[in-house]
Design a protein that fits this description.
heterodimer; A: Rossmann fold; seven-stranded mixed β-sheet; six-stranded mixed β-sheet; 11 helices; about 35% helix; globular; B: alpha/beta; Rossmann fold; two-stranded antiparallel sheet; binds thiamine diphosphate; binds magnesium ion
Chain lengths: ~325, ~290
C-alpha cells in the first residue's frame, strides 16, 4: 500500500466509524480531492462531514477549537505546510492555550494535516518543512511518519486518543511511496518498528543492535537515509542505523536510548533549517540525558536561505545524501 | 424584560469594577485590567436574552460580560487576584476566563474563529445553542475578523457578533483607524446588522431579543453594533481623552438612565443587596 492510500484509508475509517469526526480544508472535495489528492473520494462518501473552505487558514484552524469544545473531532487540511504560518496566531495564542489557561475545563483534540517538504520544484513558499518552527509552540505535538511506519494507523490513533493539538506532517515525496515492512525493505537493510502509540522505526544496514553510526531523523528524510545506509555499507563497510520517531515533538529520548551506546557518530538530519532546528533540540535533549558524552555529534539541515525552485540550486540548500556521506567520512574514514 | 433585574446586573458590574480599580491601586491585582464602566447596558441588555447553555465569547474587556452571564463575583475576583478559587485557578487572570460556556481571550479578533467553531458545533450537534461574540471597534482592524464573517455567512452559523463601539482603541480614536462604516462591513458579507446608539438597557435588550431569536431560528449570523462609551481609562494606564469629552458623556450613564425607570425604594434595596454581596466577596477573596 502507498503512503497516500494509508492516510486516505485512515481518514475513511475515522469518518466511517466516528460520527464526530469531520474533515475540512481548501479544495479537498471531489472531483478534485485535494491538492495532493489525499482526500479523493471522501467527500462523495461522507458529504456532510467533508467540506471545502475559503482560503482562510487562520479562521479554519481557529474554528476547529470551537468544534472540539463541542465534542467534535475536527481534522483540518492545510494545503501546503508553508500556509500553517497564517494560522500560527491561532495555534500559539489560542488552540494550544485554551486547555491549560482555562485550567483544563476544556479539551481541544484537533488534528492539522499538512503537506511539507521540498524536492518538487515548488520554490521558496511551497517547499518548506516548518516542523522546527512549529515545534517551538508549547503544547503543540508534531507527528511526522515515514514510509517505514503505518501512517494511516498513526493518524487514527492521533485523532482518537491524543487530546493535544497536533500537526500531522506529510512529506510530499512520500505520498506515492510504497509502505515498507520488515519483509519488503531493500536488501541489505533491516527494519524494526516499535509498538508504541507513536512508534519509532529503526532502519539498519547491519544485523546487530549497536551500530557505529546512529542517524536520527524523521518523515521524508527516510528517503535519503535509506540510500545513505546502503552507501555506508557498500563503500565503507560501516554499520549504521537510522532512528525515525513518528512523533518528533515531544521528542522522547527513551525511544533512542538503547541504540546510542556504541555509536561513535550521532547525526541528526532534518529538512527544516539547521539553525535553531529540531536537530538542536534532539542533541540538547540527548546530551542532558547523558547519552552523548564522548561522541561525535553533527546536525544536518537546510541552509539559511529560501528554497530555490531550480532543481540544481535546491540540491545545494536541502540536505543531500552526498552531504551526509561527506560528514561521516570526514570523521570515520 | 424587567428593569429592576437589569438594573441589578448593571449596578453589580459597576460596583464590582470600581472595587477592582480600588483593589488594583492597593496592590491586590497585578498585570492589567480593563474595566467595563460605562458600557454595562450592552452586556446586560444582550446577555439577559440568552439561554444559560448558549456560548458567550469575549475579549480583554470581559468582566461585565462574565458577570451578566455567570454572575459569580467571587470566582471572578479570585481569578483577577490570581487565587486558586478563580474561574481558571488563577492561570488566566483578567483577560482569560472560562466558566461553563463562557470563554475569553486577550488577542484582538482571534476569538472570532473560536466563536464560529462553537456555533458550528451547536449546529452540527443540533443543540439549539447560539454563540455570541463581543468585540471592540478597534478589533475591526484584524483580518481574521473578516475571514470569520465570510465563513459564518456562507456556512449559515448561528453566531451573533456584537461590536461595542466605544470610539477608541486603547489611546487611538476611531477616526484615525476605521475606513468606511461598521455596518457596511457586515453588509459586504451578506450579514444583516442593526446599529444602535443607546444607553438604555431596555432598548438594547429589546433589540437584542428579536435579533437573538432570529439567529436561533434562522441559524444565520447577525451583527449588532452598539455605539457606546467607556468612562474609565482603557486599562491601568493614563487616559489621553479630553476630560471635558468624558464629562459630557456622563449624561449618557446607563446606570442613571435605568434608575429613572425605578422607584427610590427599589433602587435602595437593590444597591443594598449588591453592596453587601460585593463587600462579602472582597473580604472572602482577600482571605482566600
Ligand atoms: C492582537 C492584539 N493586538 C493588540 C493588542 C493590545 N490591545 C489590547 S486592547 C486594545 C484596544 C482594543 O480596542 P477595541 O477593540 O476598540 O476594544 P476596547 O478596548 O475599546 O473595548 C489593544 C490595541 C491585543 N491585545 N491584541
Ligand atoms: Mg473600542
Amino acid at each position: 500500500m502507498k503512503f497516500i492510500e494509508s492516510i486516505r484509508n485512515g481518514l475513511d475509517s475515522l469518518l466511517g466509524n466516528y460520527p464526530e469526526v469531520v474533515l475540512y480544508g481548501e479544495d479537498l472535495i471531489d472531483p478534485y480531492g485535494g491538492a495532493f489528492k489525499v482526500t479523493k473520494g471522501l467527500s462523495t462518501k461522507y458529504p456532510d462531514r467533508v467540506w471545502n473552505t475559503p482560503i482562510s487558514e487562520a479562521a479554519i484552524i481557529g474554528m476547529s477549537a470551537g468544534m472540539a469544545m463541542c465534542k467534535m473531532k475536527p481534522i483540518v487540511e492545510i494545503m501546503f505546510g508553508d500556509f500553517t504560518s497564517l494560522g500560527v496566531d491561532q495555534l500559539l495564542n489560542h488552540l494550544t492555550k485554551y486547555a491549560w489557561m482555562y485550567n483544563n475545563q476544556v479539551e481541544t483534540p484537533v488534528t492539522i494535516r499538512t503537506a511539507m517538504g521540498g524536492r518538487r520544484g515548488y520554490g521558496p513558499t511551497h517547499s518548506q518543512s516548518l516542523e522546527a518552527l512549529l515545534s517551538t509552540i508549547p503544547g503543540l505535538s508534531i507527528i511526522a511518519p515515514s514510509h517505514y511506519h503505518d501512517p494511516g494507523r498513526i493518524l487514527q490513533q492521533a485523532v482518537l486518543e491524543d487530546s493535544s493539538v497536533k500537526v500531522f506532517s506529510e512529506y510530499k515525496l512520500l505520498y506515492p511511496q510504497e509502505l515498507q515492512t520488515p519483509n519488503t525493505v531493500k536488501s541489505g537493510l533491516t527494519l524494526d518498528v516499535s509498538s508504541d502509540v507513536y512508534p519509532i522505526a529503526h532502519l539498519s544496514n547491519c544485523e546487530f543492535d549497536n551500530p557505529e553510526i546512529l542517524i536520527i531523523s524523521y518523515g521524508g528524510n527516510a528517503l535519503l537515509l535509506e540510500q545513505v545506509l546502503l552507501d555506508l555499507l557498500i563503500e565503507y563497510e560501516l554499520s549504521a542505523q537510522c532512528a525515525l520517531p513518528a512523533r518528533i515533538k515531544p521528542f522522547d529520548p527513551l525511544q533512542i536510548q538503547h541504540l546510542i551506546s556504541e555509536a561513535q557518530v550521532v547525526l541528526v538530519v532534518e529538512e527544516s533549517p539547521k539553525c535553531h532546528g529540531w536537530g538542536a533540540e534532539v542533541v540538547a535533549t540527548l546530551s542532558e540525558a547523558g547519552l552523548l558524552s564522548g561522541k561525535n555529534v553533527f546536525r544536518i539541515g537546510s541552509a539559511e536561505t529560501p528554497i530555490p525552485s531550480s532543481m540544481a540550486q535546491e540540491e545545494q540548500v536541502l540536505p543531500s545524501a552526498a552531504q551526509i556521506m561527506e560528514t561521516i567520512s570526514q570523521i570515520l574514514v | 424584560m424587567n428593569a429592576s433585574i437589569l438594573y441589578k446586573d448593571i449596578y453589580k458590574i459597576r460596583t464590582f469594577e470600581e472595587k477592582v480599580l480600588e483593589l488594583f491601586s492597593l496592590g491586590h491585582l497585578r498585570g492589567t485590567t480593563h474595566t467595563y464602566i460605562g458600557q454595562e447596558a450592552n452586556a446586560v441588555g444582550v446577555i439577559s436574552n440568552l439561554n444559560s447553555n448558549d456560548f458567550v465569547v469575549s475579549n480583554h474587556r470581559c468582566h461585565g460580560h462574565y458577570i451578566a452571564f455567570k454572575k459569580n463575583l467571587y470566582a471572578l475576583l479570585c481569578e483577577l487576584m490570581g487565587k486558586s478559587d478563580g474561574v481558571c485557578g488563577g492561570r488566566g487572570g483578567s483577560q482569560h476566563l472560562c466558566d461553563g460556556t463562557f470563554y475569553t481571550n486577550g488577542i484582538q479578533g482571534g476569538i472570532l474563529p473560536l466563536a464560529a467553531g462553537l456555533a458550528y458545533g451547536a449546529k452540527f450537534n443540533q443543540t439549539g445553542q447560539i454563540a455570541v461574540v463581543f468585540i471592540g471597534d478597534g478589533t475591526l482592524g484584524e483580518g481574521v475578523v473578516y475571514e470569520t464573517l465570510n465563513i459564518a455567512s456562507k456556512w449559515e452559523l448561528p453566531l451573533l457578533v456584537v461590536v461595542e463601539n466605544n470610539q477608541y482603541a486603547q489611546s487611538t480614536p476611531i477616526q484615525l483607524t476605521l475606513a468606511g462604516t461598521i455596518s457596511k462591513r457586515f453588509e459586504a458579507f451578506g450579514i444583516n446588522a442593526t446599529e444602535l446608539s443607546s444607553f438604555d438597557v431596555l432598548e438594547i435588550s429589546n433589540a437584542a431579543k428579536s435579533i437573538i431569536d432570529r439567529v436561533r431560528e434562522s441559524s444565520k449570523p447577525y451583527g449588532l453594533i452598539l455605539n457606546t462609551y467607556r468612562f474609565a481609562s482603557h486599562s491601568k494606564s493614563s487616559d489621553g481623552r479630553d476630560p471635558a469629552e468624558v464629562e459630557s458623556m456622563r449624561k449618557h450613564d446607563c446606570l442613571q438612565i435605568t434608575e429613572r425607570l425605578l422607584q427610590e425604594s427599589q433602587i435602595e434595596s437593590i444597591q443594598g443587596i449588591v453592596n453587601d454581596e460585593v463587600e462579602k466577596v472582597v473580604l472572602q477573596a482577600l482571605e482566600a
